[in-house]
Amino acid sequence: MYRIFLLLSLVLLLPFFVGCQSDLEALPEDAVILAFGDDYTYGTGAEEGAGYPAVLERLIDRKVVYAGVAGETTAEGLERLPEVLAGVRPDMVILCHGGADMRQGLKAKKLVSNLEAMIRLIKDADAEVLLIAVPPPGHFLQPAAFYSEISRKMDVPIEINALTNVLSREKLTTEETYPNAEGYALLAKAISKRLKTTQLR
């Protein structure tokens, strides 16, 4: 009887879990992907051309437009985003932002509000969104909890651990705790794996 109850419970809960996946729609070969963000998108810590967008472009064989600005806050990114979207007209945006806010000790509430506003702008531009969770600075790195909350609220997929996994390994980071070239390559591979399982065709 218990097994029957457990089975029925799983069947009833299945639609809930499926609905929470927020899987990305398939991207054709001529799709344009916009990598938008702050230092982690800019490639701080590695030489030019060694950031994750350049590596990702080679891995997925899709055009990846790099639009990262070192030290940019989410407020500044929100102001910059409309012009970038209009110029690039992407099919998908990889949004990795908020690290500069946390490094500068800015309020999390405003950070969240800015990220949600960015996602609305991206959706209004008819582009898919992949949100990259960023950990706050510290010795015991964990993705900031509000990224998952944003993902659920805005119904967008999230890559929750990829950046944290890189920043948690000393050999993959610089003294300033930014990824080095090897770290960015690993980040690109994690994003590539996510896209190849849910997105590319």
UniProtKB/TrEMBL annotation:
InterPro entries noted in UniProt: Ester_Hydrolysis_Enzymes, SGNH_hydro, SGNH_hydro_sf
Protein name: Arylesterase
Entries under PROSITE patterns matching the protein: PROKAR_LIPOPROTEIN
A Pfam family annotated for this UniProt entry: Lipase_GDSL_2
Organism: Geoalkalibacter subterraneus
GO molecular function, one term: phosphatidylcholine lysophospholipase activity
Signal sequence extent: none
Domain SGNH hydrolase-type esterase: 35-147
Origin superkingdom: Bacteria
Gene3D superfamilies hit by this protein: SGNH hydrolase
